[in-house]
Amino acid sequence: MAKENGESSHGSWKKHVDDIKKIFDFKEVLGTGAFSEVVMAQEKVTGKMVAIKCIPKKALKGKETSIENEIAVLRKIKHENIVALEDIYESSNHLYLIMQLVSGGELFDRIVEKGFYTEMDASRLIRQVLDAVNYLHSMAIVHRDLKPENLLYFSPDDDSKIMISDFGLSKMEGTGGVMATACGTPGYVAPEVLAQKPYSKAVDCWSIGVIAYILLCGYPPFYDENDSKLFEQILKVDYEFDAPYWDDISDSAKDFISSLMEKDPEKRFTCDQALEHPWIAGDTALCKNIHESVSRQMRKNFAKSKWRQAFNATAVIRHMRRLQLGSSFGSSIQSTNSVPNPQSRAPAKSQSKYFNKLTLKLFICIIKIKKKHVLKYIKCTKLDSVHSTILNGQLCNSSINYLKG
Predict the structure, then answer these.
(1) Is the peptide bond before 244 cis (omega within 30 degrees of 0)?
(2) In this model, does residue 316 exceed pLDDT 60?
(3) Across the beta sheet with 15-17, what order do the strands follow?
(4) 19's torsion region: left (phi>0), alpha (psi -120 to 50) or beta?
(5) Exposure string (b/e) for 246-259, b if CB count within 10 Å is 16 or more?
(6) Which of 145, 242, 247, 264 is an active site residue?
(7) DSSP conformation class of 270
(8) Cα gap 219→231, rounded to integer Å
(9) How many CA atoms lie less than 13 Å away from 118 in the CB half-sphere?
């Protein structure tokens, strides 16, 4: 079974275990990433349901100290709108993060399923996000990857609270010098990050502004299938409140968003200031039903959650087709992070004939997801030539021919 480390000078807090399945019954895979897998599980002794993030130790090499320090801090976070890290186990090969299980689904999926949705609903959602992020900032923690996919409903109940998840890129201010690492998800990242300038917790406030924008119209303020052009838009803060989608949205909502999506981080609203804005604290958020317009745009511009990983797999294929032999592995990772409109994307013509092994390994890792969802997505996008690749979870001759173009 498990043996818990005592506190040491290095703050040891992990419980050592030979086999995690002696403590938990693994039920089903909730999601997979390039370096981890999240599984729904039940604790055998208590019967409690949890989510377990399983991280191979080989993926942590060279990052052990920083990861341990950050997780130690996250264990102290207690907020009603933040998914809790409840325990940590360690085996010879894996690190297991035992997380609070949330079952209400993703933010956009729930909005699309509603029959009635207003500015007031969006305001209440953003207030909860602001409360949670303000709490993090009060503890000098910057999330650095706020986006709709990381906002989950606690339960299927209509009045369920929203929860912030995924602290994989979180950072403590004042530890390890100034923050300057370019990270986050394209489309939600702040201009100062793209400009490679030192940045602060103001980057989270920018991301909340982007999320609020999408909640009121159903499409992102910045979009281009070319990352360079997308980043240029963000650096210039080149967005509009387009007609007719914003015609029925209040001026107060637009002012709120503009205050968060301010280019100068010194002038950008803090969470405290945003919480005091009339659109959040007052009664300026309108109660007119905007569900039809918003849900139509969300369906058009964002993949459904059950297809999202399948879409990421095909996005990697498209990106690999554009790679030259010496292309960097890191850029291919970045390309999988965006959530573009699948209806407006078309595979670029390939100029490369061969691909490095690391990129192919990334592709194999991402496509380990439920077959039926992939089949549906492939049928939709007519990527029949990679059909057998994704079914088998490995590269085969037919898909190599497809990749070679």
Answers:
(1) yes
(2) no
(3) 2-4, 15-17, 85-90, 94-100, 49-56, 37-43, 24-32
(4) beta
(5) beebbebbeebbeb
(6) 145
(7) P
(8) 17
(9) 10
The per-residue pLDDT for range 55-91, each reduced to its tens digit, is 888 887 776 666 676 676 677 789 999 988 889 999 9
Residue 194 pLDDT = 84
Q: Are 390 and 313 in contact (CB under 8 A)?
A: yes
- Do residues 14 and 5 make contact, with C-beta atoms less than 8 angstroms apart? yes
Asked which of 145-159, 160-174, 354-368 is least confident by mean pLDDT, the reply is: 354-368
How many CB atoms sit inside 10 A of residue 312's CB?
Answer: 21
Q: Which residues contact 397 (CB under 8 A, 6 or more apart)?
A: none
* Contact predicate 164/132, CB 8 Å: yes
For the chain, the straight-line distance linking the first and the last C-alpha, in angstroms and rounded, comes to 52
The answer on whether 58 is annotated among ligand-binding residues is yes
Cα separation, 127 vs 274, in Å, equals 9
The amino acid occupying position 62 is G
Cα gap 75→84, rounded to integer Å: 8
285/118 Cα distance (integer angstroms): 8
Domain range annotation of the chain: 2-100, 107-301, 306-404
- 108 in Cβ contact with 285 (< 8 Å): no
CB 209 within 8 A of CB 187: no
For residue 118, the one-letter residue type is: T
Catalytic annotation present for 227: no
pLDDT tens string 102-147: 989 889 889 999 889 999 999 999 999 999 999 999 988 888 778 8
The per-residue pLDDT for range 267-295, each reduced to its tens digit, is 999 999 999 999 999 999 999 999 999 99
Q: Which amino acid is at 203?
A: V
Query: Domain 2-100 has what CATH class?
Result: alpha beta
Q: Phi and psi of 170, rounded to 5°?
A: -65, 155
Give me the residue label for tokens 């303020």: 221
Amino acid letter at 244?
A: P
Helix (H, G, I), strand (E, B), or coil: what is residue 51?
A: strand
CB 225 within 8 A of CB 345: yes
404 Cβ contact list (under 8 Å, min separation 6): 350, 353, 354
Structure-token pair, residue 80: 């009603």
Structurally, at CATH architecture level, domain 107-301 sits in Orthogonal Bundle (1.10)
